[in-house]
């Protein structure tokens, strides 16, 4: 049975289709419709109708249904991991890891939505002391989610789980490289939550389908992908003043300080750079190691990558590049680094879609391998005077997604982490923040804006609603044409006494 979900019951001519293929074998995984403007509009309308019912269920009704969905996913993790393996190419174990993370985020979002978003009283202040004041966070209606292929479950779920828990319906456009996984997630929702099945819709196709979603009048568009596409998405959304969330690429750095546990830092750097074939937005792409630890660090990294091997079998460390064009980017970055005087310590070769674990040394900061997102199993290691120079170089990049600091000094590491110009930093580990559902996830600069995950991620898919309720009328109403002529002067005198003493 095809995973593709037919969108229209119309007897209109059948939509054009496209194939999703296994990057390791080229075998066809499934065939999907290319949804056009009309089909996307119809999906958004269905979601809009469902959104009203979903919002009316309230926090408890939604929490129960989100629990049913996560239970459904948790019971079928291996089935989904197998599909992710076939369509994206990553090892099944890595697919399982990303699915467990997504399930955990679903649990957190459902459990915390009421506390974060529900009505909360605030102080009315001096001027409105006779009023009760409250704030609550209301759903925006339908959230459009456009996702990439590298973490086809975890990444879109970072938007979908939090958007749903906040009371919205979702129309999800998966990457053209992972439509089967996206359709599986939507079909799972329909099976687990049949009474509001239309709350999650999926549309498939290429960039035009995503662009149609941007113009379909959704309440918010959550985009995860590259900065160039992000700019196009923002431009399309600007036409209808649709607000956007931008989760874009990164060029994450690791700082290895004088007092770091060098073996642990090397282990984390290798995993952070090579796992998922380096196709990780928060993957480590650059390392700055201080003079004192540089040689030991390089030796540890060299020893650790020696045993790594790409492949599509279960013993492989990572899989093929999901897109053939990504292998070309790696090739270009390695060639550029070598031409600029860099040295290939290990790897540097590309065989079809498989890239060997690549460690580059002495690469100038101006070279593409250091400046641009590579998105492959590569890493540059650069010797720096001290951690301050490392931080300076880390912060010189236009991206600002995440990063890591290795140091045994808690105070020093926390200081460096705070001053790193990124949305997220992990100390003495890599990528850990992504597995903490209570923490916000997102970047600065070219890495985008807005946050998924945590309380900020729930609020991201809402609009704040402010309400005041008069509790008792005052003898003098300042906002009335019937107020006494001297009322404003009296108020100004009181405010002058309260605030005027501050210098
Ligand atoms: P792209 O920017 O190429 O595509 C992202 C999504 O946008 C895809 O679904 C794509 O569809 C769609 N799209 C393409 N053109 C348009 C358009 N004109 N209008 C609307 N949608 C469009 O990114 P990749 O899929 O290659 O993903 C890799 C990038 O994502 C990397 O830069 C990575 O760092 C970043 N990323 C960021 C994350 C974060 O959380 N910050 C997490 C994961 C990845 P189609 O595939 O059909 O062309």
From TrEMBL:
Alphabetically ordered keywords of this record: Oxidoreductase
InterPro entries, per database record: Ald_DH/histidinol_DH, Ald_DH_C, Ald_DH_CS_GLU, Ald_DH_N, Aldehyde_DH_dom, Aldehyde_DH_NAD(P)
Catalytic residues of the enzyme: 247, 281
Any one GO BP annotation for this protein: aldehyde metabolic process
Residue numbers spanned by region Disordered: 1-22
Low complexity bias (residue ranges): 1-10
Pfam families to which the protein is assigned, alphabetical: Aldedh
GO MF annotation list: oxidoreductase activity, acting on the aldehyde or oxo group of donors, NAD or NADP as acceptor
Domain Aldehyde dehydrogenase: 17-467
Family (UniProt): Belongs to the aldehyde dehydrogenase family.
Protein name per UniProt: Aldehyde dehydrogenase
Taxonomic lineage of the native organism: Bacteria, Bacillati, Actinomycetota, Actinomycetes, Geodermatophilales
